[in-house]
Specification:
By secondary structure, the protein is of the alpha+beta class. It has helices spanning 46-58, 123-129, 133-140, 142-148; strands at residues 8-15, 20-26, 33-34, 36-39, 67-77, 92-101, 115-122. It has one domain: Nucleoside Triphosphate Pyrophosphohydrolase. Helix 2 (123-129) runs antiparallel to helix 3 (133-140). The chain starts with 7 loop residues before the first strand and ends with a helix.
Length: 150
């Protein structure tokens, strides 16, 4: 029996020093673009969730020290079509924001069951393309986060 997903997740904005941002297109929802996201498993630390999800969704094998924890979280309502994955009565998720800087736009290996395509976009264009408000808002504050050293 599969355990229900935890209503605790990560959002990882993968970007270059020039602020190009990686977006992934959801396999089940063509046209829905997003950064790396995923739920915490068992009692793993959120940074470990971020690293695992990046590896699973992109093939990028980055050390934990390469991730920046923004100490920012968002609470949002889980789309009704995905609530069956959670315990009965769970309607909201808390998402914790991280970033990962890579040297430049690199080739990505997506998880075909999750994503059908990927692209690197300038940060403003990436923010505009995201279907999720939390993802859009995280990308919009990316330049500020970089300046502050987060």
């Amino acid at each position: 029996m599969t355990l229900p997903k935890q209503p605790v997740s990560v959002l990882v904005v993968i970007h270059t020093p020039a602020l190009d941002v990686l977006l992934l297109e959801r396999a089940a929802h063509p046209g829905f673009w997003q950064s790396v996201t995923g739920s915490r498993e068992d009692d793993e630390a959120l940074i470990d969730t971020a690293r695992r999800e990046v590896l699973e969704e992109t093939g990028i094998d980055a050390p934990l020290t390469a991730f920046s924890n923004w100490s920012l979280s968002n609470r949002f309502e889980i789309f009704s079509e995905w609530r069956h994955r959670y315990a009965p009565g769970v309607t909201h998720n808390v998402e914790h924001v991280f970033s990962l800087c890579v040297a430049g736009p690199i080739e990505i290996t997506t998880a075909p069951a999750e994503h059908r395509d990927w692209q690197w976009l300038a940060w403003r264009d990436a923010a505009e393309r995201c279907f999720s408000w939390t993802n859009r808002d995280a990308i919009l504050i990316l330049p500020e986060q970089i300046r502050s050293g987060s």
